[in-house]
Amino acid sequence: MVLPSSLIDLERYPIEQEGPARDKILSQVRADLAKDGCAVIKGFLSAQGVETLRKQAESVAERGHRSFNRTNPYFTQDDPSLPSDDPRRQFYDRSNSFVPADNFPKGSALRNLYEYPQMTAFVKACLQEEDFYPYDDPLADVIVNAAEDGNGFPWHFDTNNFTVTLAIQNADAGGEFEYAPNIRKDGENFDQVKAVLEGRSDQVTSLALEPGDLQIFRGRYSLHRVAPLRGDTRRYVAIFSYVEEPGMVATPERCKQLYGRALPIHYERAGQRADSYLD
User: Fold this and answer.
1) Smallest Cα–Cα separation from 2: which of 163, 165, 115, 138?
2) Residue 256, phi-psi category: left (phi > 0), alpha (psi -120 to 50), beta (remainder)
3) pLDDT classification of 162: cutoffs 50, 70, 90
4) How far apart, in whole angstroms, are the C-alpha atoms of residue 213 and residue 50?
5) Which residues of 168-201 are buried (b: 16+ CB within 10 A; e: fewer)?
6) Please, what is the angle between helix 20-36 and helix 117-127, to 10°?
7) Which helix (H) or strand (E) holds 199?
8) Distance from CA of residue 221 to its chain's centroid?
9) Are the CB atoms for 137 and 243 separated by under 8 Å?
């Protein structure tokens, strides 16, 4: 069994031990999150960790749900009662592949890292969240995005309050992460969302993540996208999800869009939400 501690560059980022070194990391991450809801820890994974997770992602990439459809930023259906230029009526091509969580069983490297108590404690400390729980979704708690040439992910908001991603392998070109920080922190702010969608917002930040980077992102409030990829090399990104209420799962509609299926638990808990945002 791969020890989760071997996947992290603990010499550079001693997250297991309380003390000044760990406190310094936390201080920087918290400052970045306070600034715009996004923090990147460069080279968080060890070289062994990157290669181990790359091999695991490669071994299950063909099990990903490939989807080619059109979505709005909220993953909702069209509403003809709204004005034609309303952001809820703006739909974009989405082409991507997500490998669901049930492909990463107990004992596998990626799940061991997600369930590693020291990792969970570190992420919680970074976010300074009192209410912090692993996502209870059997298809979505820990997943891999396996994207190919031409794939991308258009502007959207996340279902979860915060998401943790690990860059595992980049495509030959493209795949930049772009986001508009905290655009709906105090409400839907449709006018600001519309400005981003129309390419006239000055709030957008672009990031180029490298294999081994850890990103902590408050995607519930920040509109974001992944630019289209180019080349023959797949882009692999692991996504760890945590929520602010125990027992939360995704909506059946979101599951079917992203993973091609929904389970009974998604219908049973469809109304269990932590806020009243559209998605």
Assistant:
1) 115
2) alpha
3) confident
4) 9
5) bbbbeebbebebbbbbbeeebbeebbbbbbeeee
6) 50
7) none
8) 13
9) no
- Residue 95 has φ and ψ, to the nearest 5°, of -135, 120
Domains of the chain: 4-268 (2.60.120.620)
DSSP string, 129-157: -SS-EE---TTTSEEEEEE-TT-BEEEE-
Which residues, at least 6 apart from 63, have a Cβ–Cβ distance to it below 8 Å? Answer: 99, 100, 103
Element (H, E) at 168: strand 162-169
Confidence at 161, pLDDT banded by 50, 70, 90: confident
Collect all residues with Cβ–Cβ distance below 8 Å to 100 and sequence separation of at least 6. Answer: 63, 64, 65, 139, 140, 143, 259
DSSP character string of 72-125 = -TT-----TTS-TTSGGG--EEEEEEEE-GGGS-TTSHHHHHHT-HHHHHHHHH
pLDDT tens, 61-101? 999 998 888 889 998 899 999 999 999 999 998 887 999 99
Which residues in 23-58 are b (16+ Cβ under 10 Å) and which e?
eebeeebbebbeebbbbbbeebbbeebbbbbbebbe
Tell me the backbone φ, ψ of residue 115, rounded to 5 degrees. Answer: -95, 5
Q: What is the largest CA-CA distance in the chain?
A: 57
Query: Locate tokens 């595992």: which residue?
Result: 168
Q: What is the rounded CA–CA span in Å between residue 193 and residue 115?
A: 35
For the segment 251-273, what is each residue's pLDDT rounded down to a tens digit?
A: 898 898 889 999 999 999 876 55
